[in-house]
């Protein structure tokens, strides 16, 4: 047997296995978990499962399909309606073939008749066929049961542009309060933060900090026990020994590269292009620094 023939046989066997697995996963009587890479047919399987539910007599309003993104929800809904639309006008032999591929067996006469009615049934379903994102489904659920969820009735979802504007406004007010009294706790916090951020990265630091709200909330409770308690928490989080002070930490940072390594780097970079020569100058300044903080 030639290599080409062997490859063709192996490919056909792989396709047959895939078809059987997809057919099994799309069977409404089976509880299935499908894990696969992008573009390998997960949406096809889910679409086929919805179609088989409809063919089996499940009413469209009783079906809920959830996806993660709006694009995926729109794509799946389009695929379902496209298939149903084809079934309406397909020739009997073509429709029989399509349903056989889905069901894995020849369709019953009742299934053939129902297949031609499903498009109209889905279109006329109040609210349409429910293919939604997980977020949209949760929002709808909360809107129906706000009191049970402990949220105000008639709430609105905060969109990204509005959230960004509100966060920017709150940040500006906080920074203004901090600059009014640099000796107050808020002012001292600002003075510490700006040592570690240039103008173009300060917003990034604030955004990262706001993303750690649970940590900050926990730390604010620890702060009630005094500065020593906060010190212990940060040392544990950063892996800094209890007997290490700031001067020792700065010395350790300054000694990450020894003088011999710096000298070699300056020599190599100094013979390179303009950006390398600039970096060589920076390293030369670090090597000549008189204190550990400047060198670090």
Strand order of the largest sheet: 1-2
What's the β-strand tally?
2
Low-confidence stretches: none
Write down the secondary-structure element order: HHEHHHEHHHHHHHHHHH
**Beta-strand content bin:** under 5%
Q: Rg, please?
A: 32 Å
Q: State the helical fraction.
A: 55-70%
- Shape descriptor: elongated
Quote the average pLDDT: 88
Give the CA-CA distance, first to last residue. Answer: 69 Å
Give a quick account of the main beta sheet: strands, pairing sense, barrel closure.
2 strands, parallel
Output the number of helix runs: 16
Alpha-beta content class: mainly alpha
Task: Tell me briefly what this model is.
By secondary structure, this protein is mainly α.
SSE order and pairing:
Layout lengths: L2 H23 L16 H14 L8 E4 L2 H20 L2 H12 L5 H16 L5 E4 H11 L1 H4 L10 H21 L4 H9 L8 H9 L2 H10 L4 H12 L7 H9 L4 H12 L3 H15 L3 H4 L1
Helix pairs in contact: 2-3, 3-5, 8-9, 14-15
In words, what does this structure look like?
By secondary structure, the protein is an all-alpha fold. The protein has helices spanning 3-25, 42-55, 70-89, 92-103, 109-124, 134-144, 146-149, 160-180, 185-193, 202-210, 213-222, 227-238, 246-254, 259-270, 274-288, 292-295, and strands at 64-67, 130-133. A two-stranded parallel sheet has the order 1-2. The protein starts with a helix and ends with a helix.
């Amino acid at each position: 047997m030639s290599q080409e023939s062997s490859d063709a046989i192996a490919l056909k066997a792989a396709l047959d296995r895939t078809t059987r697995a997809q057919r099994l996963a799309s069977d409404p009587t089976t509880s299935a978990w499908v894990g696969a890479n992008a573009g390998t047919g997960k949406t096809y399987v889910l679409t086929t499962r919805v179609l088989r539910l409809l063919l089996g007599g499940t009413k469209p309003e009783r079906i809920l399909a959830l996806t993660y993104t709006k694009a995926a929800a729109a794509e799946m809904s389009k695929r379902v309606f496209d298939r149903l639309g084809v079934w309406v006008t397909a020739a009997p032999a073509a429709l029989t073939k399509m349903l056989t591929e889905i069901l894995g067996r020849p369709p019953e006469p009742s299934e053939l008749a129902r297949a031609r009615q499903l498009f109209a049934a889905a279109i006329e379903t109040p609210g349409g066929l429910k293919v939604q994102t997980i977020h949209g489904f949760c929002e709808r659920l909360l809107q129906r049961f706000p009191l049970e969820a402990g949220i105000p009735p008639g709430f609105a979802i905060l969109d990204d542009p509005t959230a960004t504007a509100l966060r920017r406004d709150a940040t500006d007010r906080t920074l203004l309060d901090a600059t009014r009294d640099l000796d107050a706790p808020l002012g001292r916090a600002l003075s510490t933060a700006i040592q570690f951020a240039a103008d173009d990265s300060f917003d990034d630091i604030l955004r990262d900090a706001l993303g750690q709200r649970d940590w900050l909330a926990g730390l604010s409770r620890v702060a009630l026990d005094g500065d020593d308690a906060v010190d212990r928490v940060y040392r544990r989080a950063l892996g800094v020994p209890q007997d290490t002070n700031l001067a020792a930490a700065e010395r350790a940072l300054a000694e990450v590269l020894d003088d011999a390594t710096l000298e070699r780097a300056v020599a190599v970079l100094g013979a390179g292009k303009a950006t390398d020569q600039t970096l060589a100058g920076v390293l030369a300044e670090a090597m000549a620094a008189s204190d550990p903080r400047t060198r670090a």
